[in-house]
Amino acid sequence: MGYLNRSKHSLIAMATAMVIAAFLVPVQADADQLKAAHFMPPMHPMDRGVMTPLAEELNAATDGALTIRIYPSGELGKGPVQQYKRVVTGVADIAFGIPAYTATQFPKTVMIHMPGLFDSGEAATNALWDNLDAISDEYGETKLLGLWANNPSVLISREKPVRTLADVKGMKIRTPNPVMAEVVEAWGGIPVSMPTPEIYNAMNTGVIDAVIIGPSGIRSYKLNEIGKHATVNIPSAVDSFYLLMNKQSWEGLSDEHKAKLDELTGRDLSLRGAKAFYAAGQAGLKLAKDSGIEIIEIDAAADAEFRSAMADALAALVEKTSKETGTDASKIIAGFSGK
Q1: Residue 323 belongs to a domain with what CATH number?
Q2: What angle do CA 47, 49, 54 make, to 5 degrees?
């Protein structure tokens, strides 16, 4: 009986010690962790240049009380097109995506894709934030963390070089957004829509003849392995990108953590994204040249020919967007361009 009493007292002492220790040692399990989803490989410029730095800075700013875990390569669900749905439904707390993949959700935002508006992604990014009031309703279901653009796209072809408008006729060309799809059709090409991770196989097997893509995509998607020619100054547009947060996840944060996240996101984060794309684009063009891809610059006459051929298609697209959104799309474009 004495032995049982001693055992009982020992158990009570151990339990008491554990309770005391629980109060003395910080419990990291109470930290909030946000799930961030994207569909690129972990070494993609947007992971290395935007999302990973954001995760590190948020961890430091909150002393580890609020962290971000990044799920690359579609780990929270395959299919880049579904990124918007994933963040709205809460599959991911934060998601990186491309407005053009769900253009019906972002008809005004994708007006930034009009060819000839910008010479750089940084200028386009500032234009988006300067005119955010005109497009903010498209992000009403989420918390907008970032919105930025890359540099104007280049055209990389598998076999046939593109130097003039006539060269495009009949070519199956992957286009990055609905605006460029209309443009390619006006040029006499056949626009093909597909997510960027599918480009390599499609081009390698001849499903498509060429791709219009931001120059950073050359390295990210190994297009230097399958392309032979790159037309680098064809009249094209920038692409846009978002970083969105689930609304319930945002509202569930403390006021302190909301303030910290606001400090680390917005225009400054977006400009970081644009600059990361620029650096990656320069590296992509160098890789293309080093890999033996012919770098083509069209002359002034060809440039005028391309622009003339796409003018009516762009005007029709502006009119269509105005009717569908109940807004003046030409006014939105004028706001973007500062005219």
Answers
A1: 3.40.190.170
A2: 80
